[in-house]
Design a protein that fits this description.
By secondary structure, the chain is mainly alpha-helical. The chain is 67% helix and 0% strand. The protein contains 15 helices and no strands. Helix 3 (91-124) packs across helix 8 (252-269) and helix 5 packs across helix 13. It is globular and about 60 Å long.
Length: 486
């Protein structure tokens, strides 16, 4: 891809404004006392804000850093919108292989682990005074070097953003068909097209700060449908009792690969690390009020809400349906399959509508790094901001590309375990190594040991998850239907 050959600047230095003491003949010495005090106060203020990272012209032209008036509330909206979504609906599938005890243990450990690495990233955003790493790629290049940093971060982050958008088209379009099948007998492809057109129209908002309201709507709908689904599943009770026994694998290797695939599903549920630096980059910052303080407040609030959504969804979903949870659609499909006759049609359709709205809003924040990437290429070559018509063209192009991939490969959601394994280093491993390289903690100290251990564990786990997912695909197979959305 053309994106892979780009040369990203990985930091934005800001020279400090320094003042020389006034000489006896300076204009300052001839000023009256009130004027002198006012000038001195202004001078001190300029010295303080001189440590701020200033937007160079190119950054001021790009969607992520075009506006820096974000706050803790905006951060919470964006983090919720990117951190919770349709991937949570397949979490109970992990419990079918792990069982109750190991399922809860693994879900808890991964939640705490990724919350810790989120804290690392928010602290590393301004790890060098006067420099802000407003994109995951920039921080990776600062830590690992330009060439290795690109290899380690560019493809995974773009793959995660683009792959998530494709998955959202598949899931959102499929849910639209489920929602309106009694009104309009359209094909799945046509519903994909309806969803994609809606997403493209919504994507015309100019920058990351401008979609804060969209992210708020996405967060509200995500929390609402997650709560509705687990409450409905709990009140309707269990299905067939025989479905709650843990599945027996044919061999030890098959059993191991099932466990690894389950861990991949859990890892896939906790996404969004490739956006945290971008979200923090929309905030103002100063020595007295660094951006990591409001950012961490927003992250803490949002992940508290995420925990109250994901844990009941996983536990109640497995309790209610056991091994009968559909692989495609997860709990939403289970709700329609087992309770379409004894549940109000209004509630079912409302839940589906919330899922579609959440998919549309999540598409915006995950597509933003791709839009930023495309516009960076143009501004680097032309040394001027993108004209409005070209910005629209970039976004229409990406929407059409994502639609084509969704149409050509509609089975991608079945690869949740594989996607989770490939994206896991971004979430659990790279931030630990970045902390060691940039912060240089005391050798053999607590932070040094902890980050080396978690970093290596994350890399090893990623390799194992990818291996397990591939093994399951080869041995069990998946329902592959190219160019035929079901």
């Amino acid at each position: 891809m053309a994106m892979m050959g780009m040369q990203w600047p990985f930091s934005t230095p800001s020279p400090s404004i320094k003042s020389e003491p006034p000489t006896p003949l300076s204009p300052l010495s001839m000023m009256t006392s009130p004027m002198k005090k006012a000038f001195t106060s202004m001078q001190g203020y300029l010295e303080e804000i001189g440590h701020l990272t200033k937007l160079d012209p190119q950054e001021a032209w790009l969607p992520i850093t075009e506006a820096r008036n974000g706050n803790a509330c905006y951060a919470a909206f964006h983090t919720l919108s990117s951190g919770i979504g349709v991937q949570a609906l397949v979490l109970p599938l992990a419990f079918t292989s792990l069982g109750w005890i190991w399922g809860v243990t693994c879900l808890t450990l991964v939640f705490v682990w990724q919350l810790y690495t989120l804290w690392l990233l928010t602290q590393l955003h301004e790890s060098v005074p006067g420099t802000r790493y407003s994109r995951y790629l920039w921080l990776s290049m600062a830590a690992f070097g330009d060439r290795l940093g690109k290899v380690m971060a560019l493809i995974p982050t773009m793959y995660l953003s683009g792959g998530t958008c494709v998955t959202l088209i598949i899931f959102g379009g499929g849910t639209l068909k489920l929602l309106f099948q009694t009104i309009w007998d359209a094909t799945t492809t046509e519903w994909y097209l309806v969803f994609m057109c809606s997403a493209i129209v919504l994507s015309q908002l100019p920058n990351l700060n401008s979609i804060a309201g969209v992210s708020l709507i996405g967060a509200i709908t995500a929390v609402t449908y997650c709560t509705l689904i687990w409450i409905l599943s709990l009140t309707k009770g269990r299905t067939i009792d025989e479905s709650f026994h843990q599945l027996e694998a044919k061999s030890n290797m098959a059993r191991l690969c099932d466990i690894l695939n389950a861990l991949g599903i859990i890892a896939f549920a906790f996404r969004g690390h490739n956006l945290v630096l971008e979200i923090q980059g929309t905030m103002p910052s100063s020595p007295k009020h660094p951006s990591h303080l409001p950012m961490w407040r927003g992250v803490t609030l949002s992940y508290l809400i995420i925990a109250f959504c994901l844990f009941p969804l996983a536990l109640v979903g497995y309790w209610a349906y056991g091994n009968l949870i559909p692989a495609n659609g997860g709990l939403l499909s289970a709700l329609y399959k087992y309770h379409s006759q004894d549940t109000s049609k209004v509630i079912l359709r409302m839940t589906s509508l919330f899922v579609v709205i959440n998919c549309l809003t999540s598409f915006q924040i995950y597509a933003m790094p791709v839009f930023d990437n495309l516009e960076f290429r143009y501004t680097s070559n032309m040394n001027k901001p993108c004209p409005w018509w070209l910005r629209i063209g970039f976004r229409v192009f990406f929407g059409c590309l994502a639609f084509f991939i969704a149409f050509a490969l509609p089975f991608l959601p079945s690869l949740a375990g594989l996607i989770g394994g490939m994206a896991l280093p971004i979430t659990l491993a790279y931030p630990c190594f970045m902390w060691i390289i940039l912060k240089k903690p005391k050798k053999l100290g607590a932070m040094w040991v902890l980050n080396w251990a978690l970093g290596f564990m994350g890399m090893i786990l990623s390799v194992l998850l990818v291996f397990g997912a591939i093994w399951n695909i080869v041995t069990k197979g998946i329902e592959v239907h190219f160019l035929k959305p079901q």
